[in-house]
Amino acid sequence: MTPQSKGSLWGTFLTLLAVGVMGAFIYDTVRRDNEQARQQHQADLAAQAARGAVLARGDFAEMLALCREGWKGVSFHGDPVALAWTRQGVDAYFLQGTDATSLRQVRCDAQGV
């Protein structure tokens, strides 16, 4: 082997090593992201089951307390001007502007708000 071919082999080895290290890093990142997504999905399913149980009981005060927390998260401050409810969920109607044409419906069910 000539010194030039040894250098070429060494360069190829280093390139393959660098590609392998990058591949391992990418694999680990994707694996962690998938695990986090799976955990989040399980948490979402548990939250939906809990919300569904509250709604299925049909206790209006309990349903309203659950939904009020969700309404805060979607920028509807204050109380709704009207409510409609069933065992599947609560529909709340909010004035978003200054007149009656700005009425907005917000649905709260087992899926969330």
Verbal overview:
It is built from two helices and three strands, in the order H-H-E-E-E. By secondary structure, it is of the alpha+beta class. Strands 1-2-3 form a three-stranded antiparallel β-sheet. Strand 1 (82-86) and strand 2 form a beta hairpin. The model has no long low-confidence stretch (mean pLDDT 84).
**Estimated radius of gyration:** 28 Å
- 3D shape: elongated
Helix content: 55-70%
Biggest sheet layout: 3 strands, antiparallel
Compact summary:
This protein is an alpha+beta fold. The chain has helices spanning 3-57, 60-73; strands at 82-86, 89-95, 103-109.
Topology:
Elements (H helix, E strand, L loop, with lengths): L2 H55 L2 H14 L8 E5 L2 E7 L7 E7 L4
Antiparallel strand pairs: 1-2, 2-3
Which key features would you list for this structure?
alpha+beta; single chain; 113 residues
